[in-house]
Amino acid sequence: MTGQPLQDRVAVVTGAARGIGRALAVGLAEAGARVACLDLDLDGASETAASIQKIHGSGSSLSAHCDVTDLDQVEASKASVEEALGEVDVVIANAGGPQGQARPFVEMDMEAWSTMIDRNLTGAFATGLVYGRALAERGRGSIVFVASQLSSVVRPGLIHYAVAKAGVAQLVRGMAVELAPLGVRVNGIAPGPTETPGTADLFARSEVRDGLLAAIPMRRFGLPDEMVGATVFLASDEASFVTGHILYIDGGYTLT
Q1: Which residues constitute the domain of residue 107?
Q2: Nearest-angstrom CA–CA distance, 218 and 250
Q3: Residues near 156 by Cβ (< 8 Å), separated by ≥ 6?
Q4: Residue range 75-80: mean pLDDT, rounded
Q5: Pairing mode of beta strands 10-14, 90-93
Q6: CATH number for 154
Q7: Would residue 3 count as lying in a domain?
Q8: Got the DSSP string for 32-43?
Q9: Which pLDDT score, from 0 to 100, does residue 70 have?
Q10: Do 121 and 98 contact (CB within 8 A), yes or no?
Q11: How far, in Å, are 2, 20, 188 from residue 147 at the CA level?
Q12: Are 145 and 99 in contact (CB under 8 A)?
């Protein structure tokens, strides 16, 4: 890709306070988009927006609190974004993650299950529904969901997370089929183990780190910035004939 493939587009990134979400928000701004940074952590989202504005100017970004599991809050976010930045063209549904809640299946309970499903699948559904409707009404736009390599493989202790992300993968495919005739493309990325603030404590445990690195042919973890190029491509017109695709960015994890 050359130049700014998202020039003059308005993009929404959920979970933009830190980690992959922050990298995607900054990367979309560098690709020319005006970016709305949404997160439960308003301070973190505001820091991301401020870093974008420092480089690209005061009208280049905004931040807003949003619990993506609450449909009313997602609706309110859309209204706020469009009032401040204009009609949305690109949606990056990134919010989610395991949040250190690994546990063996036989020790699972309904609270742990529901929390993981809500955070990773219900939130993606609500984001896709609200913004997908808006894009379909206008007959244009692109949605990129952030799934996981665990949408197609599993690790002990993360069955509930893997199930949620597998649901996100099917959400991508189902929405792609239904929204394609309405002018909206829907795709996803599936990051492998990635070094973020949220994974720092987990990866610091030698038994976890060594086990994961042994499963990755490239023998290293991903970095948040390495998720940007694929996401910008899928969001842009350079992927104008691509829909329903999930691009794995996992160092070969799912090959072994």
Answers
A1: 10-249
A2: 9
A3: 104
A4: 98
A5: parallel
A6: 3.40.50.720
A7: no
A8: T-EEEEEES-HH
A9: 98
A10: no
A11: 26, 12, 6
A12: no
Q: Which two tokens stand for residue 149?
A: 């390599």
Starting at the edge strand found earlier in the chain, the sheet holding 246-249 runs: 61-65, 34-39, 10-14, 90-93, 142-146, 185-191, 246-249
Give the mean pLDDT of 79-88: 97
Q: Which residues does 43 contact at the CB level (< 8 Å), separation at least 6?
A: 17
Residue 5 lies inside a defined structural domain of this protein: no
Closest to 221 in 3D by CA, of 201, 189, 254, 191: 191
Residue 200: is its pLDDT beyond 90?
Answer: no
pLDDT score recorded for residue 2: 62
52 three-state secondary structure: helix
Q: How many CB atoms lie within 10 A of CB 118?
A: 18
Residue 187 contacts residue 176 (beta carbons within 8 Å): yes
Report the alpha-carbon angle 82-83-89, nearest 5: 15
Q: Which of 137, 141, 138, 145 is nearest to 166 (CA)?
A: 145
Number of domains into which the chain is organized: 1
Indicate whether 220 belongs to any domain: yes
CA angle 110, 114, 118 (to 5 degrees): 180
Q: Which residues are catalytic?
A: 161
Structure tokens given for 58: 């005061």
**Measured between alpha carbons, how far is 86 from 199 in angstroms, rounded to an integer?**
35
Question: 256 in a domain, yes or no?
Answer: no
